[in-house]
Structure formats: structure tokens, C-alpha cells
Amino acid sequence: MNRKSILSVAVFCLCAFNVHAEDYEAISPDGKLKIKLQVDKGTKYEVWSGDKQLISPSSIGLNLADGRIVGNGTVKSVQRNSVDQTIDVLIGKNKTLREAYNELILTFNEDYDLVVRAYDEGLAYRFVTRLGGEIIINTEDAVFNFTSTPKVYFPECDSNYATEKDQSGKTYQIHQGYRNFERLYKQYDAPTEIPGGRFSVSPVLYSYPGTSYKVVVTEANTYDYPGLYMESNGDNSMRGKWAQYPKEVMDSDPSNSNYWYSNHLVISRENYIAKTEGSRTFPWRVMIVSEDDKSLLNNELVYMLADPCRLSDTSWIQPGKSAWEWWHKAVLEGVDFPNGNTNLSFQLYKYYVDWASEHGIEYMTLDAGWSETYIKTLCLYAKQKNVKILVWTWASCVRENPEDWIKKMKNYGVAGAKIDFFERNDQIAMRWGWDFAQRLAENQMVALFHGCPVPTGINRTYPNILNFEAVRGAECNFWESTLTPEHHTLFPFIRSLAGAEDYTPGSMRNVTKEAFKPIDKDNTPPMSMGTRAHELSMYMIYDQWVGYLCDSPTEYNKFPDILSFLSDVPSVWDRTVPLDAKLGEYIVIAKQKGKDWYVGGMTNWSPRATEVDFSFLDPGTTYQATIFKDASNSGEQPKEYVCETQNVTNTTKLTIDMAKGGGFAIRLKNTGSSGISEATGQKPLLVYVDKASDTLHIESDKVIESVRINDISGQLMLTKNFGNASFSEQIDLANMNKGFYVVSVKTETTQKSTTFIHL
Fold first, then answer.
1. Residues of 140-149 as b/e, b for ≥16 C-beta within 10 angstroms?
2. Lowest-pLDDT range of 3-17, 375-389, 663-677, 711-725
3. Is residue 229 within 8 Å of 200, Cβ to Cβ?
């Protein structure tokens, strides 16, 4: 639902015979950003921030096969709109968004419009045509002439060709560039340094030297049109690039192990990029502008530019977290049945369902290798445990047999599909995501897109799409050494601007850069770089509407404090507040869910201290903070971490040291105003450790009767009964060994509270 508070319109008519150059402009609501248009034998735009020009006159337009150029015409009328409205977000990192923009619509005599919007967050334009019939678009002009030499953060595609065989055994050379959406960010000091013939997916970030300005170029609302790539256009200039329309396509066969990418690989292409209806709306070309790196972490311009939700009923769409067997090769320690990825079975998946149910995890995802022989039985069992089943599949299964496959899964009781291997973004392939989402929604099933194009706001239109991969994520630890803390502190400023990214965090197998080795071996879990606390911070920093726990349940069971945190941490949020950040160096961000807050921080390979200012918290309210942070030796022993608790308010400032490749994660439980519960007017039960004195503090509004302390193996370490009708107790733990303990407190009302502490 959109709540529109301001709408004003003004229309100006121009004479049709006006053929001299005309200039137009749209200015952001805060008056800072400006886009200027020049219409004279074509259309050009330029971008300003205050008195600084960021993009000099640059050409835009659509070049049709019949010789017409959309953008090379005469302006008939001008319409200006100002909009200020609130958007309700069903699933995301902010429950509501303020969408405010000034809009300029140029209507041309040649039956098309150019629509331009100026937001405080950035600028966007698109063409709307009324040409009728079918049109063929040979090329599109989308040029970006920067006013200085920008540093380019370029998610570069592969430029090679690879050998692929069709079902008959015939060999083809397939160009790999047009199916790469999980790229690293190569950094070039100038567009001219990008090798000829190389191009990248979007978004692409441009950093202006000697200033704090960043411009991120991307797209929004792309449907039935190829997705945006980018390439060098010479000195200080870049331009859009699009995959040409498929001409000859290789048949797929997911049953054949030779067809790793069962997505109808394109063998040859036409000399045009799109064949489409002549009357339609084209995708937005988007320029996000920032002078403050941290603002990029909460920029949702792509989402706001997307079409509103097309589903009348969304009550069945459930975000959450998921257990998952694939990353850790289904290895379970200490179980009495065959396990590992060569022993997938009903018994094995039943274990994951039981574990998910025990810890309040909403989903279990069955990845490659599951069998239809037990899926229905498993779904029935999971339903009894209040766990939903997601299944991995080839994109071709959903695309080629949409009714049969989807309905069959629905009848089995499957809640959603993790759809893999549609790594194309030509016009044909860009239709697939919309089609998958719609067909699954008709059966009230969710979608997780894997091996897919970068999202362009489609999750607003079809919110049943809960995750998108299109990021170089944790699976790459199988094959290469690219998932470094530098990578972790870079892509949230770029890739995340397009939408949620399914990185699949949660590794408990943390090692140093020097110790890391890629592992892709059956029944052998991989490693990950960065500290344990760095890994936990990903659950606040990264956007994932289904939050994956990539490691083994038996590994999480060894660390009950971490398991408690991962069980509690939300996957969607009410509010996001970036606190401090620098591109490729560090990130500190806070996110709210209900009355509680979470804070995540991470650094690259450079150790650093950061001050967390809690002024974003509600005044007069006390929060119990559980803090996971690097230990003094985490730089050399990345699995080591510290977990401590303390009370904080909005006046608290904490300095936290992050090791190299380190980080921290903080859970802030609202205990009520001034320590009093807002709901009951009562003081909550508080259990925390004073680290300075190794003293356990217990505070309650009820008489404290007893306390028991067990180690994580279950062995009783201490029990104490209280007979003094006290509401506050302290226990000296200085003689206990360092480690994790489970504290159980009983009060006069038979209330029992269990929490984890760390000495």
C-alpha cells in the first residue's frame, strides 16, 4: 500500500514547430541533485550535485531496426509532477520507505515519452513508447560521460568461450560473458584501463578522485528486455551494453551430467537486442549518487522504481531462516546413520527438520541430490514440526514443464523452489524470472533464485521471490580463494543496491588467509576466511529474506551461545540505520525488528577499533546487549571469539576492537523503559556477567528462589538456593574455568529462565 501525501502536476505545451534546442531539468526534493536534458537532434542529459557537475552531456535513445530513433524527435509537451508518499514494504530491510521525487515527462511528437525522476537518493530515466505493432531494437544509447577520471569498481564478466556439447554430442563454442552474475569487483583507475572487449554486469560503482562522491549505475524494473551490462566508452566515459537476441539455442537435458547449465545455452545471436511491443514502458536507467559511503548501504531506489506488488494475497509469504545441507557436504558428527553428501536420505533430512524445529528455524532446504521417493513423506513430517520444505531444481524443470513440475511439488507439500541455472539476461531469459514468480505465486509457493541475473526490483512486484544469488557467495570457498574480507566489505555498497543477495553465511570453519585452502571434496566441509565474529556480522549486514545457516547443525550445537543468536536473528527488518562505513574497508550497521535491535560490524584484513554510538536507541529505555566480538588472538586464531553481556542505553558508546578479517555482532533486547517492561510495568528478569569481577548478576521483580549453572556438556557446575526473599543476587564465578555456561533461574512464580553466559 502506498500512502501519498503530496501530488502536484503542471502541464506546459510547446509548439510542434519548435525545432531549436530546448533545455529541461528536474531537481531532487532536497534541491541538491539535478538532471538537465538537452533535446536537439537527439537527447542528452547531464548530472549535477550542487554546483559540481558529475556527468557531462551524454546521449540516450533507442535505435530501431526501421531507422527511427526514440529520443531524436521534437518535444510536444512537458509535464511536471512532485510526489511525496510512503511505501509499505512487505519484505525487506525497512518496513516503510519515503518515496519523494520530482518528475519531468517530455512528450514527443513521435509518440513516445521520456520520463525523468530526481530523488534525493539518485536519478533515473526511461522511455515510454506508443508506437504500436512490433518493433525491433538494434541498440540502445546509454552513455555516461564523467567529468573527471573515476575509479571503476567493475564486476567483470569472463571474456572466453567454453566448449559445450548438445544431446547429440555435437560441440559448440559458447561465449561465457553473457551468463556471469557472480563476479568479483575488478578495480580500474580509469575507464580507459578496462581492456577492450571486456564488459561487466551492473551495478557498477564510479568513485570520483579527490572527493567523497560515488555514482552507481544500474537499472530497475527490467522485464521483457535484456539486462544492463557496461563497457568502456573511451576517455572518462562508459556506456551500456546488452546481450543480443538469441538466434540458435542448445537444448537442455538436466538428466544428463554433461549439461551443467541446463538453461538452453545460446549458440548464436541476432544483430539486435530486443523484439518487443511498440507500445510499452522500458526499464529505468538509474544513477545513485552518494557523498557518504554509509548511505549506499540503505539506498532502496531500485526497489522504489519497480512496479508495485501484483499479488492480491500475500499472507502466505513467510520470510525466515533455513537449515541447509549442501555447503557443509551434509556432514553430521556423532549421528548413528550414514551422512555426508553421498548419503542423502529421508533419515538424514529428518534430522535437519528436527533440528530446525527445535531451534525455531522456519525452513529446511534440500539441495541437489534429493529424491522424489521420500519428498512427500518428508513434507508431511516437517509440517507436523512446523518446518517448511524448500527444494532445489534446474530452471529447465520449472520452465519446460511449469504446470506439471510446480503442481507436483505443491501436491507433495513443498513450500517453495530454489531455481538454479538461468544465468542469462538476454530478453528471453529476463522473462523467466517473472514467469517463475507468477506461476509459483498462483500455487502459493515461494521462490529462491540461484544462478540467476541480478535483481532489478522484481521482489517488489513479486514478493514471493525471497532470495537472489547473483553474488559471489560462500559456495565459492569450494573452488577458489576469492571470498576475502575485502570482498565482504565491498559488495554491500554495490551489488546490494539491486536487491537481496543470497551469500549463505554461517560458516563455523574460520581460518586465516594463510591457512585457507579451497576444498571441493565429497563428505568434506570447506573453509572460510575471516573471524567467527566477522561471519556472525553478515546476518545484520547482508540482505537475505531467507537467512541461510550454511554449516552443520552438529557444528552449531558445539556453541550454544551462537546457536541461540542465529535462532533469534531476524531475516527481515523494520528499520535499517547505517552507522559508519567506508567502501571496501569496514561496515557498521544497525537494524531494528520490533522493539529489539541488532548491530553488525566487519572489517577487511586491516584490524581497527570502532566506536559504536547507541544514540539510535529509544531514549529512556534499557537494552540487554549480547556482544559477540573478536578475542585478542582472533587474528591468528579466527575461531576464537568473546561473548559478553551488558546493559546499554541511547547514551552508551562502546569501543570494539576488530581483528584482521574481524567483526562483531550485537543483539539488543529491549528490557523496557528505565529497566521496566512497557507491557507489564514490571522489571524483567536480567542475567548478566560483570567481566571485570567475574560476577554473575541476577535481577528480577519476583523473589529469586534458585539458580543452576551447567557447562555446555550438561554437567552441573553450581546450584544455589536463596531464602532471603531477594530480588537481586550476585554469585562469584572467579573460581570457574573460562568458557560457556548455561544459567537457569527460578523465581517464586515458578518462572524459569535459561540463558548462556561466557567467562
1. bbbbbbbebb
2. 3-17
3. yes
Residue 638: closest CA among 661, 610, 609: 661
When pLDDT is averaged across residues 370-381 and rounded to a whole number, the result is 98
**Rounded distance, CA 367 to CA 420, Å?**
10
Rg (C-alpha) for the chain, rounded Å, is 28
Check: pTM over 0.85? Answer yes or no. Answer: yes
What's the CA gap between 103 and 106, in Å, rounded?
A: 10
Which runs of consecutive H residues, i.e. helices, occur in 359-426? 375-384, 395-400, 402-412
Contact 146, 206 (CB under 8 A): yes
Beta carbons of 417 and 390 less than 8 angstroms apart: yes
Q: Which sign does the torsion angle of CA 422, 427, 430, 436 carry? A: negative
Query: CA-CA distance, 725 to 702, in Å (whole number)?
Result: 9
At 163-172, the pLDDT tens digits run 877 767 788 8
d(CA 374, CA 414): 12
CA separation for the pair 423, 264 (Å, rounded): 10
Angle at 660 between CA 511 and CA 210, to 5 degrees: 135
Type and span of the H or E element at 587:
strand 586-593
Mark 595-618 as b/e (b = at least 16 C-beta within 10 Å): bbbbbbbbbbbeebebebbbeebe
Q: Give dist(CA 609, CA 612) in Å, integer.
A: 10
Instruction: Spell out the domains of the chain, with CATH numbers in brackets.
Output: 2-305 (2.70.98.10), 320-533+548-567 (3.20.20.70), 686-759 (2.60.40.3080)
Q: Supply the pLDDT for residue 677.
A: 38
Q: Would you say residue 290 has pLDDT above 80? A: yes
Cα-based angle 298, 300, 302 (whole degrees, multiple of 5): 145
Cα–Cα distance, 574 to 96 (Å, whole number): 8
Give the residue numbers annotated as catalytic, written as ranges: 420, 475
User: Residue 316: is its pLDDT beyond 60?
Assistant: yes
Q: Other C-beta atoms within 10 Å of 753: how many? A: 16
Per-residue pLDDT, 701: 74
Q: Which residue has the higher pLDDT, 1 or 696?
A: 696
41: Cβ contacts below 8 Å, ≥ 6 apart: 72
Q: What is the predicted pLDDT for the residue at 256?
A: 60
Interval 502-513: pLDDT, tens: 999 999 999 999
Give CA angle at 165 (160, 169), nearest 5°: 150
Of 432, 437, 441, which is closest to residue 459 (Cα–Cα)? 437
Taking the C-alpha atoms of residue 47 and residue 33, their distance in angstroms, rounded to an integer, is 7
Q: What pLDDT sits at residue 746?
A: 83
Q: Which residue has the cell 522511455?
A: 127
pLDDT of residue 12: 44
Three cell numbers, residue 445: 509457493
Assess contact for 22 and 13: CB atoms under 8 A.
no
**Cβ atoms of residues 453 and 429 within 8 Å:** yes
181's CB contacts (< 8 A; 6+ apart) are 201, 423, 425, 451, 452, 453, 454, 469, 470
- The SS3 assignment for 344 reads coil
- Residue 89 DSSP one-character state: P
Q: In the chain, how many H helices and how many E strands?
A: 11, 47
pLDDT tens across 75-105, in order? Answer: 999 999 999 999 999 999 999 999 999 999 9
Q: Which three cell numbers stand for residue 273?
A: 537486442
User: How far is residue 98's CA from residue 5's CA, in Å, rounded to a whole number?
Assistant: 10
* Angle CA 718–724–727, to nearest 5: 80
Say how far apart CA 86 and CA 162 lie, in whole Å: 48
% helix, strand, coil for the chain, step of 5:
15, 40, 45
